[in-house]
Amino acid sequence: xxxxPSKAGSxxxxxxxxxxxxxxxxxxxxxxxxxxPCCTKTASAAxxxxxxxxxxxxxxxxxxxLNLSDPYGRHVCVQAAAEAFAEAEELxxxxxxxxxxxxxxxxxxxxxxAIHPEDFIDFDAVINGGQSFTPNPHxxxxxxxxxxxxxxxxxxxxxxxxxxxxxFEVKEILGVNCIVVHDRxxxxxxxxxxxxxxxxxxxxxxxxxGNVWYFGELAMNFEDGELKDIEGSWEAGEDFAKPGYIMLxxxxxxxxxRQEFALGDAEDVAAVKSxxxxxxxxxxxxxxxxxxxxxxxxPLEPDVIEFKYYAPGVGTVLEVNPEDEERVELVNMVTP
Length: 336
What we know:
- Helix content is 24%, strand content 35%.
- By secondary structure, the protein is of the alpha+beta class.
- The protein has two domains: 38-106; 118-334, Beta Barrel (YmcC-like fold).
- The strands form two sheets. The protein has a 15-stranded antiparallel β-sheet that branches. Strands 12-13 form a two-stranded antiparallel ribbon.
- A hairpin with a 5-residue loop joins β3 and β4.
- 29% of the residues are buried.
- Residues 1-10 and 17-32 have low confidence and may be disordered.
- Residues 1-28 form the signal peptide.
């Protein structure tokens, strides 16, 4: 088994040891009574797939290098390909170790949440029929709500502006009428001009117990004003992708859960670090009552973690990357 480099290893130890994940919903599926170690085997299968992919890429790159007429150029090309392969191979190993750590906490059961449409709020009836519902206080999905955020670096320099809006629009997924949330990101350049880099439709649903589920997203990524790709897009029910919790009805320290599951594309997990212990100050205001703190982690990027803070009646107010100290702060909120 390949060891974890010190950086990734320390983050993983911090992720799971510091918050003492000992209770709460281990997954959105049944308890750990699977007849096979499904989670561990999934990690192994993904590791093998990762290695096959990087070997294929390496072979194609070497073939292209060999067709350069300049001998020195061929040498440089092959050397760069070998270095890239070594880095990719290390990442495959890190991802496997990260997935195995998640298995230790979430259990070995197959991740296969049962979705019954009758268990969910019908957002079509909310929008078009006037049906009322009680939004999850830490992740309110009231149509017409708009949040504005600014991402800043450790020195306070603005990097991005983010606008999130709950639309009066639904999308049916697995028989559930999900609410559509429009999420746009503009990069702020040195002249403080804004350039659109991401335009996303997120699909959320709230069950009648108050849990908020994430059913997928259509992510359009832009470069120089042109659509580059839709990398990161996924939809529950397509290509084995499955929904997860984005916010629990009554989150408590120790709770850990999958937020999404599209193997190799979307594997975010979250853990509740604290509740009603933190005071958070952002441009929009200071929040001290019932602030929820979570730690978000993606095994596809095993050396990256984020702390997120949620205030009741508002939702996300702050995101912090402890590695580079970048922050995403709430600067404004408009309610219908």
